[in-house]
Amino acid sequence: MKSKLSSTFNKLRIIMVAALTVFCVSCDKTETTDTTGFILHYLGITDIGPSMSYTLKAPAYKGSTPYDFTITKITLDNESFSNNDNFVINSETGEITVQNTDEMKPGLYNISVGCYSNGKFFDFKDAVQVNMLLAVPEGVSVEPAEVLVKMEDENWWEASAKVTTDTEKHVSITKYEFAEDESKEYIKYFTISNTGVITFNPDHKDEIIPGEKYILSLKLTTKAGEHLYPDAVTFNVISKPLNLLYKPNTVRVEQNTAHESQIPTIQGSKGMTYAIKSVTPEVAGFTIDETTGKISLAENSTLEIGNVYKIDVTVTNEYGSADFAEAYTVTIVDYIEPIDPETFKYVVPETYEEKAYKIPVDPKFKGDEAIFSFTNNTGIIQEHINNNKITIDPVSGTISITADNTLAPGNYKINVKVVGPTEDKGEATTTVVLEIKANPNKFTLYYGNNIGLNTVQHANQFAYSSKDEMDNAELIPTVNFLTNTTTPNIKWEYQIKDLIGGNKSIGVGKDAVLDTQTGKITLSKNGYTTGSMNMGLIIVKATAGDGDLAYSVTTPIFIRCNVEKNGVFVKYSPFVFKVNPKIGGWSEAPIIEKPTDHTTLKMDFRKDINYFNIEITDNPKGLTPTSSPLKEVWDSFFADIDKTVSYSSIKPISYYNTDSNIDNKSITDRLLGYVDPISKAIRINPEKWKNEKGEYINGILFARIAYTTDGTIPNSQVFYPIAIWFDETYGDN
């Protein structure tokens, strides 16, 4: 049946998620997308190659169950793309299948997804990114294609493979990366060097699972572009048996009653066989399933009441054997109390969103040696169970919910089953009613603007043309509590007050006063700067409530002094360019008020780069390319162009630079960013601003821009007309 969403989408295109009109800030707790709490989230970019088909997992969500999914828009490298069944979405689950890729052009495909939740329509712009790559060049291989890793070896994590090229094919690889693949969360366990050496990431070696095979695909960059090398190398981690665990591993058994253990968990290579090594004290009656490891005690075994039997187990695979002392302990008793269904209840604490909780079984529960498990759960609860965000201890019955759960405020049901050690001891089920409450301290915050733009969408931007205009100017915050009608007390504090530019220690926040009761900021004329650093920021943190439910928002306020520089005044509006480093983009082109003749005006990024993570309070000068995370960004750029890295070089973001015999005008798609020579808009290229672990930069960049009015290459005359704010969530919804 045709989706109702398809027939109504054109009428609903103008409906936007509330988050699109909210100026985002950094929060100690994740903010919901809108007041209903509904969020839809697909995993990151997926790299695929020609002739491949691929199905992207259904999205995670927060709030009511989504339904009636549809693809609302597709772009290829930011240009509209006509979808000829290349991308097909499952209207019920939201899974997206990529197919018919033989003739698809390489590039970044952004897929916008619409769906309903609780009767409301939501449209998530660029919710999914698929990067179509070229086929791997002929003559490229990985040696060895399969790496045998023996965990018993000393320094096993140093095992490696290397990308090689056939010299006769003249393939020159300028950059080595792992292909992005949502199904392979283990990519972070590995590293690849600038020369194509693949090995384990030692920081994650303790997360490697013995007996697993890790298959890695590569993204290789040549002069022709980016290529996909699917399933390029396999790391086969072999091991003898490790970490045998029965749960429970200590039990009581009623005399003359048959008993079976739970099936144990174990690590190591496949093909395990189990055997009982010994029983202490020695006695007949215990057996073990050699395939599953389940231990059994025969009925009428005549074991005496009060005796305790400790069972040692030996497990063998093709790589060796291991003995596990006292793996299972059995105590013989005269009576096991059966389960009383009337007593099977849970003590549910008061629960709030985005919090971790433990929900114990009512202490009045009656039933010995009981085993607890989930049963017949559906929807988001079952998804959380599958993702180990909701777990149950089979012995105690305690239900645990992790802090990163995505349960929006509302009521939920968790179905639990308990069984006795034998059928005659009974069983029971119960439903735990979980009421997730909204955090009463949760709020949004913005300071508006004075630049004539939407005060919410372009919040926190203030421009002043003179000291008098700036003196005693008051910046008033707007605070909206999402659920609480009574306003909790808010504590206000500066995070950063004075931004340092170059060697100058006077920032726009000099002598500004923050009212710690109201959040009002009163500026001072002493913050009006006329030097090259004519822009800066103040960072304020607001906290509502106390204890576990305290909620904090950290927000930057940008201030520009409208200073004419040598007959030049370039006015970006907005003057804060907010951009998602995953997808990149263009700023608005500025209004050039002076000079009136623009034809000979040139602008280019030049030295003095200052980067601020919003949560960093101890470095008002910010970070330079000599420090992480910018260091890794510079490393990647120079590796891409196959040149020695220079952290003092502006080459990664300069349009006119010609160092290293490379004219940047010919590699604009490989630059981190640049000033467009015609419009003077700022370009940020996608997938460039991230560290060596693939984590995107989230913070604020001030980069000095040089200018000339005579058509020569800019160098010495400089100003700061625009700030760049990287936010990897921006534009996701």
TrEMBL record:
Pfam families: SGBP_BT4661-like. CDD domains: Cadherin_repeat. It comes from the Bacteria. This is DUF4958 domain-containing protein. It comes from Bacteroides stercoris. InterPro entries: BT4661-like, Ig-like_fold.
